[in-house]
Design goal:
By secondary structure, this protein is α+β, with helices and mostly antiparallel strands. It has helices at about 90-100, 110-130, 135-140; strands at about 5-10, 15-20, 20-25, 30-35, 40-55, 55-70, 75-80, 80-85. α1 (about 90-100) packs antiparallel against α2 (about 110-130).
Length: about 150
């Protein structure tokens, strides 16, 4: 399978910087799959798991919004927050989910906050079911290193 470069960047870290075979991500307009040679494109990301398929191995990273750009066979994802399966506190996510589901009189703002908490918790629980297969070279990257050249 032909490969392309995937970079997932947060303000604090380079979460992924490696060659992959395919990426499936949740955008605000629906799911989008990317493979090597894909046309140049930008998309707004929704909360969801970015599924990474590489040599018949699938793994995922939770992202909480952001933008993605495919250009010159490089997919760059910029997000404010991303979690690998090993970074998710499953018990905390379950507790937040349960707290957000509690019914009662709530203001519109409280309902909106609960909806965000529900979405975040569900994404965290979904990604926690993936095996944590992020190469050591990505985990060892120093967050003080400048990010790669971006075209966004």
């Amino acid at each position: 399978m032909n490969k392309f470069r995937l970079r997932i960047l947060t303000p604090d870290a380079i979460k992924v910087d490696e060659d992959v075979g395919m990426v499936i991500m949740r955008c605000t307009t629906g799911a989008m799959g990317i493979m090597a040679g894909h046309e140049s494109r930008s998309a707004v990301l929704d909360y969801g798991v970015v599924r990474i398929i590489n040599d018949s191995i699938e793994y995922g990273i939770a992202v909480f919004g952001g933008i993605a750009e495919m250009y010159n066979n490089v997919l760059t994802i910029l997000t404010g927050e991303a979690h690998t399966p090993g970074e998710v506190d499953v018990e905390a996510a379950k507790a937040a989910l349960k707290a957000a589901e509690i019914q009662g009189k709530k203001t519109d703002l409280e309902i909106a906050q609960d909806q965000v908490t529900l979405r975040r918790s569900l994404v965290q629980l979904e990604v926690s079911s993936y095996s944590c297969i992020i190469s050591a070279k990505n985990e060892d990257k120093n967050s003080d290193d400048p990010p790669p050249n971006l075209t966004i």
